């Protein structure tokens, strides 16, 4: 009897091959058993079969969307190897921990912000008008939307399958919109976008909402910025107690009405500004409210409007 010693690599190969064959046979056996049972179940329960098919279809669309987004953003070099968006006024600082990005509503406010900022550590990205509602939008549609694409590129962390939170270029991302209904709408749209697609920005404590003043109250050479109606009344009463008779009130209907110096002093200067840090609960509430208002279910939307209509105010 002759014994032949086989190489270890060949033994390992044959072992792996045998294991794969066994796995294939096991899968075929499971498939044969389950297919017959599923065929019978689906014939007897067509509604459940339709629901399952719809879920499979949606999952397939999601995978295709993620792949399309990756191709559109990464393979074409939009995030890597190409310049940042032209409308972005980037900062000089390269340390994310020391860098800030202000997402500004409109070119007018964007112009004032670019002039009034501290360019050493503050970057400005103006967004033109309302952004896409991302609650139900596919990822490829989101990436194709120019305003959001510019934001994704500016942040530098990708999206979908390409998301790499450690590559975030700014550790303070500030949404800066007008203190009116349109501004609040844009804030809600952006919060929904971050909550649904860039949640690590919120989880890391990097997302903020700027609180611009509503009024400037002046009394002679004295001046005070106030952020609420109650603050306006309080400032007026204080000046009156000081014997001031002529009090001027300027209502800011938009950030674009402020000159660069005012915008810096009230909303961008780290020494004076008021920023609200966004947490997951805030973003989830905004997402739920927006989904309710823009969704297909009419009764919840009607109840919300009936409940809050008496609290609404008009910006005239």
Tell me the CATH architecture of the domain at 84-211 and 275-294: 3-Layer(aba) Sandwich
**Assembly status:** single chain
Spatial ordering of strands, largest sheet: 2-1-3-4-8
Shape: elongated
Question: What is the fold-level CATH name, i.e. the topology of the domain at 84-211 and 275-294?
Answer: Rossmann fold
- Tally the beta strands: 8
**Rounded average pLDDT:** 78
Compressed to H and E, one letter per element, the order equals HHEHEHHEHHEEEHEHEHH
* SS summary, helix count: 11
CATH class type of the domain at 84-211 and 275-294: Alpha Beta
How would you sum up the major sheet?
5 strands, mixed
- Whole-angstrom Rg: 28 Å
Classify the beta-strand content into a percent band: 5-15%
Low-confidence stretches: 73-81, 304-316
- Assign a percent range to the helix content: 40-55%
End-to-end Cα distance = 103 Å
Structural class: alpha/beta
Describe it for me?
- The protein is α/β, with parallel strands linked by helices and 316 residues long.
- Among the domains are: 84-211 and 275-294, Rossmann fold; 215-251, no CATH class.
- It is built from eleven helices and eight strands.
- It has helices spanning 8-44, 46-75, 107-116, 139-144, 146-155, 181-197, 199-203, 229-241, 260-268, 280-294, 298-308, and strands at 100-105, 122-127, 172-176, 207-210, 215-219, 222-226, 248-251, 275-277.
- The strands form two sheets. A five-stranded mixed sheet has the order 2-1-3-4-8, with helices on both faces. A three-stranded antiparallel sheet has the order 6-5-7, covered by helices on one side.
- Helix 3 packs across helix 9 (260-268).
- The longest helix is centred in the first third of the chain and has 37 residues, at 8-44.
- The termini are far apart.
């Amino acid at each position: 009897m002759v014994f032949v010693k086989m190489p270890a690599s060949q033994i390992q190969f044959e072992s792996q091959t045998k294991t794969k064959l066994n796995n294939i046979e096991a899968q075929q056996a499971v498939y044969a058993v389950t297919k017959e049972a599923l065929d019978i179940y689906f014939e007897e329960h067509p509604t459940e079969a339709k629901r399952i098919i719809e879920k499979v279809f949606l999952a397939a669309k999601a995978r295709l969307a993620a792949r399309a987004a990756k191709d559109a953003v990464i393979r074409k070099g939009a995030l890597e190897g190409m310049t940042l968006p032209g409308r972005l006024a980037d900062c000089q600082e390269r340390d994310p921990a020391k860098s800030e990005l202000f997402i500004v509503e409109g070119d007018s406010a964007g112009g004032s912000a670019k002039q009034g900022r501290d360019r050493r550590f503050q970057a400005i990205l103006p967004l033109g008008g309302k952004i896409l509602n991302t609650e139900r939008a596919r990822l490829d549609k989101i990436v194709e939307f120019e305003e959001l694409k510019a934001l994704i590129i500016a942040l530098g962390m990708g999206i979908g399958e390409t998301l790499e939170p450690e590559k975030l270029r700014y550790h303070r991302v500030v949404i800066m919109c007008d203190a009116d209904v349109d501004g609040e709408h844009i804030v809600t749209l952006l919060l929904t976008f971050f909550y649904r697609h860039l949640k690590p920005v919120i989880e890391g404590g990097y997302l903020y909402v700027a609180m611009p003043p509503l009024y400037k109250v002046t009394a002679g050479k004295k001046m005070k910025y106030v952020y609420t109606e109650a603050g306006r009344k309080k400032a007026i009463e204080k000046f009156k107690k000081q014997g001031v008779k002529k009090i001027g009130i300027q209502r800011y209907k938009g950030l674009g009405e402020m000159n660069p110096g005012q915008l810096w002093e009230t909303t961008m200067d780290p020494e004076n500004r008021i920023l609200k840090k966004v947490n997951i609960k805030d973003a989830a509430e905004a997402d739920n409210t927006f989904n309710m208002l823009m969704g297909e279910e009419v009764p919840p939307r009607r109840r919300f409007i009936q409940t809050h209509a008496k609290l609404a105010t008009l910006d005239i």
